[in-house]
Write a structure and sequence with these properties.
Bound molecules: pyridoxal-5'-phosphate
Shape: elongated
Order of helices and strands: HHHH
Distance between the termini: 46 Å
Largest sheet: none
Number of domains: 2
Radius of gyration: 18 Å
Number of helices: 4
């Protein structure tokens, strides 16, 4: 059964049923991801899209103060990166 059929038949339950329970689907790439970044298997996690991860990172670490309140981005950043930078500034 392909994953779209599984989704059509099981919906969210597909996270827990064989074959390929989606809950642990990233397990199959942990070892190669750890090798890629020079880490140990329990030091890596594969998750989300680049934009989602960047958003989470910026929301967690950007703590503006009256004197440190700017985000520098490269010239002509990837459009969604720019939107995220603006969004994080507006959230505060
Ligand atoms: C620099 C950069 N930022 C953001 C993205 C968007 O990534 P995603 O679709 O995983 O959110 C890309 C995609 O190629 C990218 O190259």
């Amino acid at each position: 059964m392909d994953d779209l059929t599984k989704w059509a038949n099981q919906g969210v339950e597909g996270h827990f049923t064989e074959p390929n329970p989606w809950l642990t689907i990233d397990d199959i790439v942990v070892e190669s991801s750890a090798r890629l970044v020079g880490g140990l298997n329990d030091e890596v996690v594969v998750m989300n899209s680049l934009s989602t991860n960047l958003n989470l990172l910026m929301l967690a670490f950007f703590q503006p103060t009256p004197t440190r309140n700017k985000i520098l981005v490269e010239h002509k950043p990837f459009p969604s990166d720019m939107v995220l930078a603006l969004f994080v500034c507006l959230v505060d």
